[in-house]
Every structure is written in C-alpha cells, then in structure tokens.
Automatic annotation (TrEMBL):
<dbReference type="InterPro" id="IPR025630">
    <property type="entry name" value="DUF4288"/>
</dbReference>
<protein>
    <recommendedName>
        <fullName>DUF4288 domain-containing protein</fullName>
    </recommendedName>
</protein>
<dbReference type="Pfam" id="PF14119">
    <property type="entry name" value="DUF4288"/>
</dbReference>
Length: 119
C-alpha cells in the first residue's frame, strides 16, 4: 500500500446559484495499492462527501463533487517533505504578506494554548 495526495474539487452553490462561481479545492491523503486505485478511491470519497444543507438564511447550499484534478504519490513521508505548493499573484503584495503574518500569529497562539493545556 502506498500514500497519495489527491486534489478533490467541489462546486459550492447557494440558493439558485446566481452568484460568483465558488469552488473548494481539497487536498486529501489516500492510502491505496496503486495510482488507479488511489484515483478511484479519491473519486468515491468526493462523491460520498457531497452535501446539501440549509444555511442561516434558510437557502439551500449544495456542495457538488466535480472530480479529482491531481494525484501525487508520496514517495517518502519525512519531516519537512513538501506536499503542496501554489504560486500566487496578488495585486497588493504588502496586504497579502500582512495576512500571512496575521494567520501565522493566530496559529501560533492556538498551538501555544493547546500545549499549555497539556502541562
């Protein structure tokens, strides 16, 4: 059995769908015999986890599975191994960097709080 990283894509439709198209791209770990089984397992996971629910405004929200767009075999699960990379272009580089630092600060705070709860 091998480990694979699969990207599953869902379309998010709220109400009658008259809004900007929204998609959720999820990276999932898949444990399978080979690439074909991993692809099929990722597709089954995506189909199984489609969801319909009503939001706070009582509008129907649909998460519709589109497909698996990427599949990568994870050769070595080692500390610090890269599993995902995405290059972004931003109109406001400073604002993006500020956002990155704010998220990192929040994450550090949460991790510290959880650690302190254990001691």
């Amino acid at each position: 059995m091998e480990w694979y990283l699969a990207k599953l894509v869902y379309r998010i439709i709220c109400g009658n769908g008259e809004h900007h198209a929204q998609f959720d791209e999820q990276l999932r770990l898949i444990h399978a015999e080979d690439e074909l089984h991993a692809f099929n397992k990722a597709q089954l996971t995506g189909q199984k986890e489609q969801e319909n629910f009503f939001n706070q405004a009582n509008h129907l929200v649909q998460w519709k599975f589109i497909n698996v767009t990427e599949l990568h075999k994870l050769e070595n699960l080692t500390d610090g191994a890269e599993v995902y990379s995405r290059i972004r272009e931003e109109d406001d580089g400073r604002a993006y960097q500020h956002s990155v630092h704010a998220k990192a600060g929040y994450l550090l705070e949460q991790c510290t709080d959880k650690f302190l709860e254990t001691v």
